[in-house]
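Predict the 3D structure for this chain.
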Amino acid sequence: MDDPLFVPDNWAMETHSETDPTGGESGFSTGRAILLILAASMCAALVFAKAEQATPARKATVARVKPTVLPKVPVMDVVKLTIDGPDMSKDGEKSAKVTAEFAFSATDPVSFVILKSSAVVTDVDLGSNRLRFTSRPQGYVLNVLRAGDYKVSLTYLLPVTEKAGKWSIELGILPNLKNEVVLRLPDKELDVLSNEAVYLTSKEKGDKGTEVSAVFGPVQKVGFTWQPRVRKTKLEKVVFFCEVNTFALFKPGVVELTNLVRF
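Done. Predicted structure below.
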Protein backbone atom coordinates (compact mmCIF):
# COMPACT_ATOMS: atom_id res chain seq x y z
CA MET A 1 0.00 0.00 0.00
CA ASP A 2 2.91 2.35 0.61
CA ASP A 3 4.31 1.75 -2.93
CA PRO A 4 3.99 5.12 -4.83
CA LEU A 5 3.70 3.26 -8.15
CA PHE A 6 0.51 1.55 -7.02
CA VAL A 7 -2.68 3.32 -8.02
CA PRO A 8 -6.11 1.98 -7.15
CA ASP A 9 -8.17 0.83 -10.12
CA ASN A 10 -11.20 2.91 -9.25
CA TRP A 11 -9.07 6.11 -8.98
CA ALA A 12 -7.51 5.46 -12.37
CA MET A 13 -10.93 4.97 -13.90
CA GLU A 14 -12.23 8.24 -12.42
CA THR A 15 -9.23 10.19 -13.53
CA HIS A 16 -9.49 8.73 -17.06
CA SER A 17 -13.16 9.61 -17.38
CA GLU A 18 -12.47 13.26 -16.43
CA THR A 19 -9.72 13.78 -18.98
CA ASP A 20 -11.29 11.75 -21.80
CA PRO A 21 -15.06 11.52 -21.57
CA THR A 22 -15.26 9.66 -24.89
CA GLY A 23 -12.89 6.86 -23.90
CA GLY A 24 -9.13 6.27 -23.91
CA GLU A 25 -8.67 4.98 -27.46
CA SER A 26 -10.65 7.79 -29.11
CA GLY A 27 -8.70 10.57 -27.33
CA PHE A 28 -5.35 9.09 -28.27
CA SER A 29 -6.36 8.75 -31.94
CA THR A 30 -7.62 12.33 -32.14
CA GLY A 31 -4.39 13.71 -30.71
CA ARG A 32 -2.29 11.68 -33.07
CA ALA A 33 -4.34 12.88 -36.07
CA ILE A 34 -3.88 16.52 -35.03
CA LEU A 35 -0.12 16.02 -34.76
CA LEU A 36 -0.01 14.41 -38.21
CA ILE A 37 -1.98 17.29 -39.77
CA LEU A 38 0.36 19.85 -38.18
CA ALA A 39 3.43 17.97 -39.41
CA ALA A 40 2.03 17.73 -42.96
CA SER A 41 1.25 21.45 -42.99
CA MET A 42 4.78 22.31 -41.88
CA CYS A 43 6.29 20.04 -44.57
CA ALA A 44 4.11 21.61 -47.27
CA ALA A 45 5.12 25.10 -46.15
CA LEU A 46 8.79 24.16 -46.33
CA VAL A 47 8.36 22.69 -49.84
CA PHE A 48 6.64 25.83 -51.17
CA ALA A 49 9.26 28.06 -49.57
CA LYS A 50 12.08 26.11 -51.22
CA ALA A 51 10.27 26.23 -54.59
CA GLU A 52 9.88 30.01 -54.38
CA GLN A 53 13.56 30.39 -53.50
CA ALA A 54 14.67 28.07 -56.35
CA THR A 55 12.57 29.70 -59.12
CA PRO A 56 14.36 33.09 -59.16
CA ALA A 57 17.72 31.34 -59.16
CA ARG A 58 16.70 29.26 -62.19
CA LYS A 59 15.45 32.33 -64.02
CA ALA A 60 18.67 34.15 -63.27
CA THR A 61 20.66 31.23 -64.67
CA VAL A 62 18.65 31.24 -67.91
CA ALA A 63 19.04 34.99 -68.26
CA ARG A 64 22.82 34.68 -68.20
CA VAL A 65 22.86 32.35 -71.26
CA LYS A 66 23.77 34.32 -74.42
CA PRO A 67 22.12 33.41 -77.75
CA THR A 68 24.31 31.86 -80.43
CA VAL A 69 25.28 34.39 -83.12
CA LEU A 70 25.47 32.88 -86.60
CA PRO A 71 28.16 34.20 -88.99
CA LYS A 72 26.90 36.68 -91.57
CA VAL A 73 27.28 36.18 -95.31
CA PRO A 74 30.08 38.51 -96.44
CA VAL A 75 29.14 41.40 -98.70
CA MET A 76 31.05 41.24 -101.97
CA ASP A 77 33.44 44.11 -102.56
CA VAL A 78 33.18 43.71 -106.34
CA VAL A 79 30.91 41.60 -108.56
CA LYS A 80 31.55 41.49 -112.31
CA LEU A 81 29.38 39.43 -114.66
CA THR A 82 30.03 38.98 -118.39
CA ILE A 83 27.17 37.35 -120.32
CA ASP A 84 27.64 35.99 -123.86
CA GLY A 85 24.16 35.64 -125.31
CA PRO A 86 23.13 33.23 -128.10
CA ASP A 87 22.44 33.84 -131.76
CA MET A 88 18.83 34.89 -132.38
CA SER A 89 18.38 32.52 -135.31
CA LYS A 90 16.09 29.53 -135.04
CA ASP A 91 19.06 27.20 -134.79
CA GLY A 92 20.71 29.23 -132.02
CA GLU A 93 21.25 27.65 -128.60
CA LYS A 94 18.84 28.63 -125.84
CA SER A 95 21.57 29.22 -123.26
CA ALA A 96 24.08 31.92 -122.35
CA LYS A 97 27.63 31.65 -121.07
CA VAL A 98 28.32 33.66 -117.90
CA THR A 99 31.73 34.51 -116.48
CA ALA A 100 31.46 35.75 -112.87
CA GLU A 101 34.21 37.34 -110.79
CA PHE A 102 33.81 37.91 -107.03
CA ALA A 103 36.13 39.80 -104.68
CA PHE A 104 35.32 39.80 -100.95
CA SER A 105 36.73 39.75 -97.41
CA ALA A 106 35.69 37.30 -94.67
CA THR A 107 36.24 38.00 -90.97
CA ASP A 108 35.24 34.47 -89.87
CA PRO A 109 34.76 31.03 -91.43
CA VAL A 110 31.47 31.01 -93.30
CA SER A 111 29.47 29.03 -95.88
CA PHE A 112 26.97 30.55 -98.32
CA VAL A 113 25.20 29.79 -101.61
CA ILE A 114 27.08 31.52 -104.42
CA LEU A 115 25.03 30.12 -107.34
CA LYS A 116 21.52 28.73 -107.73
CA SER A 117 20.99 25.14 -108.78
CA SER A 118 19.66 26.23 -112.22
CA ALA A 119 23.22 27.07 -113.33
CA VAL A 120 25.50 24.53 -115.01
CA VAL A 121 29.07 25.17 -113.85
CA THR A 122 31.79 24.56 -116.45
CA ASP A 123 34.87 26.06 -114.77
CA VAL A 124 35.91 27.09 -111.23
CA ASP A 125 38.94 29.12 -110.14
CA LEU A 126 39.00 29.58 -106.34
CA GLY A 127 42.47 31.09 -106.17
CA SER A 128 43.06 29.81 -102.60
CA ASN A 129 43.32 26.48 -100.77
CA ARG A 130 41.24 27.97 -97.96
CA LEU A 131 38.10 27.78 -100.09
CA ARG A 132 35.91 24.80 -100.95
CA PHE A 133 33.28 24.66 -103.71
CA THR A 134 30.53 22.06 -103.33
CA SER A 135 27.18 21.26 -104.96
CA ARG A 136 24.09 21.00 -102.74
CA PRO A 137 20.35 20.65 -103.48
CA GLN A 138 19.82 24.35 -102.74
CA GLY A 139 22.66 25.39 -105.07
CA TYR A 140 26.44 25.70 -105.25
CA VAL A 141 27.98 26.46 -101.84
CA LEU A 142 31.28 28.26 -101.20
CA ASN A 143 32.95 27.26 -97.91
CA VAL A 144 35.41 29.78 -96.46
CA LEU A 145 37.68 27.98 -93.99
CA ARG A 146 39.56 31.01 -92.65
CA ALA A 147 39.29 34.77 -92.52
CA GLY A 148 40.99 36.68 -95.33
CA ASP A 149 40.65 38.39 -98.72
CA TYR A 150 39.56 36.25 -101.66
CA LYS A 151 38.92 36.39 -105.42
CA VAL A 152 36.77 33.73 -107.07
CA SER A 153 36.03 33.20 -110.76
CA LEU A 154 33.22 30.96 -112.05
CA THR A 155 32.06 30.07 -115.55
CA TYR A 156 28.59 28.60 -116.01
CA LEU A 157 25.62 28.32 -118.35
CA LEU A 158 22.13 29.76 -117.80
CA PRO A 159 18.92 29.14 -119.78
CA VAL A 160 17.62 31.82 -122.15
CA THR A 161 13.93 32.01 -123.03
CA GLU A 162 12.32 33.26 -126.26
CA LYS A 163 8.66 34.19 -126.65
CA ALA A 164 7.08 36.04 -129.58
CA GLY A 165 10.46 37.30 -130.79
CA LYS A 166 11.51 38.63 -127.36
CA TRP A 167 14.52 37.03 -125.65
CA SER A 168 15.20 37.18 -121.91
CA ILE A 169 17.60 35.95 -119.24
CA GLU A 170 17.53 36.12 -115.42
CA LEU A 171 20.40 35.62 -112.99
CA GLY A 172 21.06 36.15 -109.29
CA ILE A 173 23.55 38.63 -107.90
CA LEU A 174 25.10 38.55 -104.41
CA PRO A 175 24.98 41.56 -102.04
CA ASN A 176 27.79 43.88 -103.09
CA LEU A 177 29.37 47.29 -102.80
CA LYS A 178 30.16 47.59 -106.51
CA ASN A 179 28.93 45.69 -109.55
CA GLU A 180 29.24 45.68 -113.32
CA VAL A 181 27.29 43.50 -115.74
CA VAL A 182 28.15 43.24 -119.45
CA LEU A 183 25.81 41.55 -121.96
CA ARG A 184 27.33 40.69 -125.36
CA LEU A 185 25.00 39.71 -128.21
CA PRO A 186 26.08 38.61 -131.71
CA ASP A 187 23.22 40.49 -133.43
CA LYS A 188 22.86 44.19 -134.18
CA GLU A 189 19.99 46.70 -134.23
CA LEU A 190 18.52 45.44 -130.96
CA ASP A 191 16.43 47.05 -128.24
CA VAL A 192 17.81 45.89 -124.86
CA LEU A 193 16.04 46.62 -121.57
CA SER A 194 16.53 45.84 -117.86
CA ASN A 195 13.97 46.91 -115.28
CA GLU A 196 16.37 46.50 -112.33
CA ALA A 197 19.28 48.49 -113.81
CA VAL A 198 20.05 51.97 -112.49
CA TYR A 199 22.39 52.60 -115.43
CA LEU A 200 22.37 50.97 -118.89
CA THR A 201 24.12 51.72 -122.18
CA SER A 202 24.00 49.82 -125.47
CA LYS A 203 26.58 50.08 -128.26
CA GLU A 204 27.10 48.28 -131.55
CA LYS A 205 30.62 46.91 -131.95
CA GLY A 206 30.78 46.54 -135.73
CA ASP A 207 30.95 42.89 -136.74
CA LYS A 208 30.98 41.83 -133.06
CA GLY A 209 27.33 42.67 -132.56
CA THR A 210 25.90 44.57 -129.58
CA GLU A 211 27.47 45.17 -126.17
CA VAL A 212 25.37 46.33 -123.20
CA SER A 213 26.82 47.61 -119.90
CA ALA A 214 24.66 47.90 -116.79
CA VAL A 215 24.95 48.74 -113.09
CA PHE A 216 22.44 47.49 -110.53
CA GLY A 217 21.37 48.57 -107.06
CA PRO A 218 20.76 46.37 -103.98
CA VAL A 219 18.72 43.63 -105.68
CA GLN A 220 18.98 39.84 -105.50
CA LYS A 221 17.94 39.06 -109.09
CA VAL A 222 18.59 40.90 -112.36
CA GLY A 223 17.30 40.34 -115.87
CA PHE A 224 17.68 41.46 -119.49
CA THR A 225 15.25 41.39 -122.40
CA TRP A 226 16.12 42.09 -126.04
CA GLN A 227 14.40 42.01 -129.41
CA PRO A 228 14.95 43.38 -132.94
CA ARG A 229 14.66 47.14 -133.07
CA VAL A 230 11.26 48.38 -134.21
CA ARG A 231 11.29 51.05 -136.94
CA LYS A 232 9.87 54.37 -135.81
CA THR A 233 8.36 55.78 -138.97
CA LYS A 234 7.31 59.01 -137.26
CA LEU A 235 10.96 60.00 -136.93
CA GLU A 236 11.77 59.22 -140.58
CA LYS A 237 11.71 61.85 -143.34
CA VAL A 238 9.32 61.11 -146.19
CA VAL A 239 11.24 60.61 -149.46
CA PHE A 240 9.71 59.57 -152.80
CA PHE A 241 11.79 57.39 -155.07
CA CYS A 242 11.21 56.38 -158.65
CA GLU A 243 13.46 54.52 -161.08
CA VAL A 244 12.77 54.07 -164.83
CA ASN A 245 14.78 51.73 -167.04
CA THR A 246 14.19 51.67 -170.81
CA PHE A 247 15.36 48.87 -173.05
CA ALA A 248 15.42 49.27 -176.89
CA LEU A 249 15.59 46.44 -179.36
CA PHE A 250 16.38 47.47 -182.96
CA LYS A 251 15.12 45.35 -185.81
CA PRO A 252 14.95 46.05 -189.55
CA GLY A 253 12.29 48.68 -189.92
CA VAL A 254 11.18 48.29 -186.26
CA VAL A 255 12.34 49.52 -182.84
CA GLU A 256 10.96 47.69 -179.78
CA LEU A 257 11.03 49.63 -176.49
CA THR A 258 10.54 48.18 -172.97
CA ASN A 259 10.14 50.44 -169.91
CA LEU A 260 10.69 49.16 -166.33
CA VAL A 261 9.42 51.50 -163.64
CA ARG A 262 10.14 51.01 -159.90
CA PHE A 263 8.89 53.31 -157.13
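The chain has a mean pLDDT of 80.
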